[in-house]
Design a protein that fits this description.
Blueprint: H1 3-41, H2 48-59, H3 65-92, E1 102-104, E2 113-117, H4 123-132, E3 137-141, H5 144-152, E4 158-165, E5 169-170, H6 172-180, E6 184-192, E7 196-199, E8 210-213, H7 215-220, H8 222-226, E9 232-235, H9 239-249, E10 254-258, H10 260-265, E11 269-272, E12 282-289, E13 293-295, E14 300-307, H11 313-322, E15 328-335, E16 343-350, H12 356-368, E17 370-377
Parallel strand pairs: 1-13, 2-3, 2-4, 8-9, 8-10
Antiparallel strand pairs: 4-5, 4-12, 6-12, 7-10, 7-11, 14-16, 14-17, 15-16
Helix pairs in contact: 1-3, 2-3, 3-12, 11-12
């Protein structure tokens, strides 16, 4: 191809691009008129059936299979952009997603009644003390679900639950509990986790045959534990419960993976300290309340929604964040019980429920997804 020919082609492409931009602006102007009609009639922005019909119509205008896919993607994106534009116009008319949350200057934590799972000396107990202080009425229950029930029933003001660890990842069962119970995340706290191998006072590391701990703790110490191939690893509900069991059983062949504080509480000896392979091991704990409140200076929002098992569905949903300039911090998925290969997504984003960009993004997700819930702003 001659240089002159290439320059001519580029000129033609520039001209076509100008036409495309001009047509796009005309299309967006018409989209704005559609938004005005929907504002007057109270109709929703997202019309799934209409969009599907439009996609089929435009892809039917081309024969080449590659072009069909390209046209499908192009018009899917254009309609997505049109929806976001319409959400913006509707928000300007005061039509935005409404939530039951109310802002407060600060959380009432003085002398609060706080519940956690496990026994004294558990990491969750430490997290509760760290956030609420020694003056709080802190008590324990047998399971994380029991803690959620206590808050929902009003027996406790707050519950403290681990939700994520920097080494072992998400505490998936607790994500499921966020959906099962209507409690709200109102705060979070981070705790450095330093696991030790604990045994009876007369025990030696060479005596150990069985190690007890919470599954997450076993994972966080897997390199050290798996190097001792003869040791049986047994999961229990909590690291402190593991320490308590070793003390109560009185068997020198048993050890627990737990904090050194738990060892002091239950009279155990540190056989080896700091056995977690990630020395920056940190667990994020969430604070839950029955009341849908958020601090005025809150900067993180947790939401959940469901999507069908369909190509592009998550991408299209996340575009609500992209077009509103909202930063996504975390995404986690969980299978939906009884619906094979369909998933519920949990997402953390930066922002405050009072922000216009957040309101626009959440309105889009509430219309385009299923069972969208705001889990908390904190």
């Amino acid at each position: 191809m001659k240089t002159l020919d290439l320059q001519e082609i580029r000129k033609q492409l520039d001209g076509i691009d100008r036409e495309i931009v001009s047509l796009f602006e005309k299309r967006m102007a018409l989209s704005g008129q559609v938004a005005e009609y929907k504002i007057e009639t109270g109709k929703k922005v997202y019309d799934k059936e209409r969009e599907q019909q439009k996609i089929e119509a435009v892809t039917g205008m081309v024969e080449d299979e590659f072009h069909k896919q390209a046209v499908r993607e192009l018009f899917t994106q254009m309609m997505t952009i049109s929806r976001h534009f319409q959400y913006k116009l509707m928000a300007e008319h005061g039509l935005k997603a409404e939530y039951e949350f109310r802002p407060v200057k600060s959380l009432p934590v003085n002398h609060a009644r706080v519940v956690y799972q496990g026994v004294e000396g558990a990491y969750t107990h430490e997290a509760a003390l760290k956030y609420f202080g020694a003056d709080a009425d802190i008590y324990h229950v047998d399971s994380w679900e029991d803690a959620m029930k206590e808050v929902e029933a009003g027996a406790a003001d707050y519950a403290v639950l681990p939700i994520e660890n920097s080494s072992a990842g998400a505490v998936t069962h607790n994500y499921d509990l966020l959906i099962k119970y209507h409690n709200y995340i109102v705060a979070e706290t981070f705790l450095s986790v330093d696991h030790a191998l604990l045994g009876l006072s007369e025990a030696k590391e060479g005596d150990i045959q069985t190690v007890f701990s919470h599954p997450q703790a076993l994972m966080q110490c897997s390199e050290f534990l798996n190097a001792n191939r003869d040791w049986r690893q047994i999961s229990v509900e909590n690291t402190a419960i593991a320490a308590k069991k070793v003390f109560e059983d009185g068997d020198p062949s048993q050890a627990a993976v737990a904090s050194e504080i738990a060892g002091e509480i239950y009279g155990l000896k540190v056989l080896k300290s700091s056995i977690n392979h990630n020395k920056n091991n940190t667990t994020r704990f969430i604070i839950l309340s029955k009341e849908p409140v958020y601090r005025e200076d809150a900067g993180k929002i947790s939401i959940s929604f469901e999507l069908p098992h369909k190509s592009g569905s998550l991408y299209n949903m996340l575009s609500n964040f992209i077009y509103n300039g909202v930063n996504m911090m975390m995404i986690e998925s969980r299978p939906i019980l009884g619906r094979n290969w369909e998933y519920r997504f949990f997402i953390d984003i930066e922002g405050n429920l009072s922000d216009a960009s957040i309101q626009n993004a959440l309105k889009g997700i509430s219309e385009e997804g299923s069972n969208m819930r705001v889990l908390g702003n904190y």
